[in-house]
Amino acid sequence: MKAQNAFYAQSGGVTAVINASACALIETARQYPDRIGKVYAGRNGIIGALTEDLIDTGLESEAAIAALRYTPSGAFGSCRYKLKGLEENKAQYERLIEVFRAHNVGYFFYNGGNDSQDTAYKVSQLGEQLNHPLTCIGIPKTVDNDLPITDNCPGFGSVAKYIAISTREASFDVRSMATTSTKVFVLEVMGRHAGWIAAAGGLAADEEHDIPLVILFPEVPFDQEKFLTRVDENVRAYGYCSVVVSEGVKRADGKFVAEAGGKDAFGHAQLGGAAPVIADMIKNSLGHKYHWAVADYLQRAARHIASKTDVEHAYAVGKAAVDLAMEGKNAVMPTLVRVSDTPYRWTLGSANLADVANVEKGLPRDYISDDGFGITAACRTYLQPLIEGEDYPPYRNGVPDYVVLKNMPVEKKLNTAFKI
Amino acid sequence: MKAQNAFYAQSGGVTAVINASACALIETARQYPDRIGKVYAGRNGIIGALTEDLIDTGLESEAAIAALRYTPSGAFGSCRYKLKGLEENKAQYERLIEVFRAHNVGYFFYNGGNDSQDTAYKVSQLGEQLNHPLTCIGIPKTVDNDLPITDNCPGFGSVAKYIAISTREASFDVRSMATTSTKVFVLEVMGRHAGWIAAAGGLAADEEHDIPLVILFPEVPFDQEKFLTRVDENVRAYGYCSVVVSEGVKRADGKFVAEAGGKDAFGHAQLGGAAPVIADMIKNSLGHKYHWAVADYLQRAARHIASKTDVEHAYAVGKAAVDLAMEGKNAVMPTLVRVSDTPYRWTLGSANLADVANVEKGLPRDYISDDGFGITAACRTYLQPLIEGEDYPPYRNGVPDYVVLKNMPVEKKLNTAFKI
Fold first, then answer.
1. Using the beta-carbon criterion (under 8 Å), do A400 and B168 form an inter-chain contact?
2. Which residue among A81, A272, A294 sits closest to B180, beta carbon to beta carbon?
3. pLDDT for res A260
4. Do the Cβ atoms of A9 and A42 come closer than 8 Å?
5. CA-based, 20 to 30 A from A382: which of A88, A111, A161, B345?
6. How far apart are CA B5 and CA B71, in angstroms?
7. Cβ atoms of residues B192 and B324 within 8 Å
C-alpha cells in the first residue's frame, strides 16, 4: 500500500488544548512514513480544504510541533462554518473530495464538536460514492463537554479548572472586602446550552473552603425572587456571596437573562452579558455592593493553568486518531472511557461517528442540587478528576512562550476558485 | 526594654500578594520575642482597631502563617475606610491610641496605599501627643502602582503578569477564529486613575509574538474616530485586533467611556463596563464580530499565576517593616529600589511617611507611544522585570490549597462601643 497524505482541520471554538491533539496527531503520523505521507492542515479549518488552502506541517520543526502541546488556540486557524446537509449542498462535499483527490489525501482527521463529527461522517460516505475512499476519523474537542459516548471532551477540563480556581480566588477577595465594600461577586461563564462550565464553579468550595456559592444553570429556569433570597441569606450568614452565572441562563418564558435590559442612548439593545444584569438586580433589590466579571475567551484560552488530565486526554485522542486509522478503522471517533473515579483511571475507546453526530449530552438533572443553585456529590465525583494536575507551559520574559507556526502553504494543484 | 505588642492591618483593595507581606511581618516579628510580644491583626483592617476587634496571630500555626505567602486576598479582612483628617475627627485617632494603650501595642504596621500611609503618619504624630508613643511603619501595597518613591508597589507585578498572559492567550484565540467569526477582542482591566495595568497588556506582544494591540489609557482622552480607524487597520493587516481598555478611560469632556450608555428597561443607568461599550462601538461602526471580557477581581486575586518577583517584593517589604522598627525607625515605609533593569537587581530603601502620604505616581507620558495606543520601549524596560518568574501555590484536588486562618479574637479590655 502506497503512502497517502493526511488532512487535519480544527473546527469551531478553540480551546486551551486542541493544539495538544494536533501535536499528537502529527507526531504519531510521522511514525508511519510508509503509510502516511504529508500531514496537511486546513488553513482556518475546513475552509482551507474547500479553498485548497492547505498548510504543509512537514515544514515545521519537531520542536515547533512539540510546542503545540502547550500552546492554546488553533495553530492552523479554525472556523465557524457548518457544511450543509448532503442533499442541500452536495457541491461542498464533492469539492472536498476533489481537493483530497488532487492532493492524494487518504486520511481525513476532523477535530471538533458535534457538527464536525457529522461532517466527518458524511465525507466518509461520499468518498465511497465518488470512488475516492477516505479514512475519516473525528477527534473530540469542545469546552461545552456536550459530545455523547465519550466520558468528557478535551478542552472542558481546562476551562473547568480555570473557573474553579477563579471562583475560589475571587471569593477570597470579596470575603476580605465584605465588611465595608463589595458583598457580592458575580462571575459569568460560558455555556449557552448546558451548565457544565457553571457546575465547575462549584469546585471552588470544598470541606476546607466553605464558600457561599450560588450557581445559575441554563437548565434551571431563573427565579429572580428565589435567587435574591438565597443571595441575601448567604450575605447574612457569611457576610458575602459568590455567584457563578452561565451565559445561557433563561427565565421561565425562555428569554435569556442577558437580554433583560433596555436600549442604550442610541436605541441599540442593551449591551450584553448576564453578569451585569444579575449584579444590577442584586444592587437594586438588596442594596449590596457588587463586582462582576465576564471571563469570556480568557477561560477557554487559559493554557497557563490547563488541567494536566485534560492535556493528557487531548494528546491521547490525537494519537488514537492516527492509531485507529492505522488499524483500518473508519468513520469513528476515539473516546475517553472512565474506568474508576477514585483513583481516577481512564482508557481509550471508540465510537461510530454515526452515533456521535448531532447528539448533545446535557448536564444530568441529578448533578444539580434540589434547590437548583449548586452541584451534587455525583457531579463533584464526575468533575473532580477532570481538573486534576497542572501542566505549566514554559515562560519567557514572564509570559508563556507559546509557539507561532510558519504555516507554509502547499502548492495548489487545482487552482479553481470555490465560493464559501 | 519590655516587649510590646504589634498591631498589623490590611487596608483597601486586596491583592494576590498582600498576605505575603503579612506572612513576612509575622515570621520576622516572631524572631524578636524580647521586643515584640504578640502580633495582633485588625479584623477587617483598621476597623478592627477602632472596635477593639483584634485577632491573635499567635494562635496560628507556623504552617498556617507560612501558607499566607501563597494565599491571595486579605487573610484578616480589609476595609475601605479612610480616617478623616486629624482636625475633623480627632476622636477616631484618640480611639486608636486608647485601644493600642489598652493592649500594650507599641508597633503599628499598616499595609496599604496612599491613604493608609497618611493614616500611619497621623497615628505616629498623635501617639506622641497623647503620651503613648508608637513605632508606625507603613507597608506598601496596591495593584494601582501609584505610590511615590518606591520603584513599584507589591500587588502590581502580579496583576500585570495576569493581564499580559491573558491578553496573549485571548489574542491567540481570536486570531484562530477571525476568518469566519470574532475579529476583535476587548479586555477591560482595572485602573480608574492611572494606566499602569493597561500598559501591562502591551507585554503580550514581543518580537516573537507580533500581536496587533490597541491600548486605551485613562491618561489619553478617548478619540472614537481615531480608535476605530486603528482597530480597522489592524483587522485589515492582521485579520484581527485585541483591545485592552482601562476602566478609567475618559472622553475629552471628562466623562468615563463606561458611562456612555442610556437607561435600562427600569430607567436605571446602563450597566457598567467600558469593554461592552467599546465592543458595541466596534460592532456598530465597523461591523466586526467581537468578544469582550471584564477581568475585575480575577486579575488582582490571581495568585495562581502571581509574579515571583512580586511575591519576593511583598515578602521583603513585610520583613523590612519589622527590621526598620527594630532599628528604631519611625514614620517610615520600606521601599523597593531598582538598581538595574537588565539583569533586574533591586534592594530595599525607606521613605518618610510624610513624603509618601497622599502623593500619587502616574504613568509617565513617555511610557505611552506617540499615537496614544501602545507602550514605549522605556515602559517595557520598566514593566518587564516586575512580571518575571512564576511562584505557583500548592494544589489539592485541582485547585490551589489556599489557607483560611482561625482568626481567633483577642479578649477585649475596653469593651466600650465605638461607632464606625
1. yes
2. A81
3. 59
4. yes
5. A111
6. 25
7. no
Dist CA B71 CA A240 (whole Å): 19
User: Taking CA atoms, what residue in A is nearest to B391?
Assistant: A398
pTM listed for this prediction: 0.97
* B408: pLDDT strictly greater than 80: yes
Distance between A155 CA and the closest CA of chain B, angstroms: 13
What pLDDT is recorded for position A85?
82
Question: What pLDDT score was predicted for residue B419?
Answer: 86
In chain A, the residue whose alpha carbon lies closest to the alpha carbon of B295 is: A293
Task: Pick from A206, A294, A392 the residue to mutate for testing the B interface (most B CBs within 10 Å).
Answer: A294
Question: Which of A36-50, A117-131, B249-263, B293-307 is the least confident region?
Answer: B249-263
Q: Is the pLDDT of residue B54 over 80?
A: yes
pLDDT at position B420: 82
ipTM greater than 0.90: yes
Instruction: Name the residue with cell 476587548.
Output: B186
Nearest CA in chain A to B404: A209
d(CA A402, CA A396): 9
Q: Which three cell numbers stand for residue A77?
A: 486557524
Please determine, for residue B301, whether its predicted confidence score (pLDDT) is greater than 90. yes
Is there a contact between B71 and A263 if contact means CB atoms under 8 Å apart?
no
Residue B265 has a pLDDT of 43
Contact B257, B251 (CB under 8 A): yes
Contacts of A129 (CB under 8 A, 6+ apart): none
Q: Do B268 and A284 touch (CB under 8 A)?
A: yes
Q: Which domains does chain B have, with CATH numbers?
A: 4-142+303-358+389-400 (3.40.50.450), 156-301 (3.40.50.460)
* Radius of gyration in angstroms for the set of CA atoms belonging to chain A, rounded to a whole number: 23
What integer pLDDT is reported at residue A270 of this predicted model? 46
Interface A-B: count of C-beta contacts within 8 A:
263
pLDDT > 70 in chain B, percent: 97
The label of the residue with cell 467611556 reads: B257
Nearest to B294 among A81, A294, A300 (CB): A294
Please tell me what DSSP assigns to residue B214.
E
> What region does A131 belong to: left with phi over 0, alpha with psi -120 to 50, or beta?
left
Q: Provide the sign of the torsion angle of the four alpha carbons A276, A282, A288, A293, taken in this order.
A: negative
Q: What is the pLDDT of residue B260?
A: 60
d(CA B290, nearest CA chain A) in Å: 11
Q: How far is the CA of B346 from the CAs of A349, B287, B379, in angstroms?
A: 55, 48, 18
| CA pair distance B380, B344, nearest whole angstrom | 13
d(CA A231, CA A247): 19
Q: CB-CB: which of A209, A276, A298 is closest to B404?
A: A209
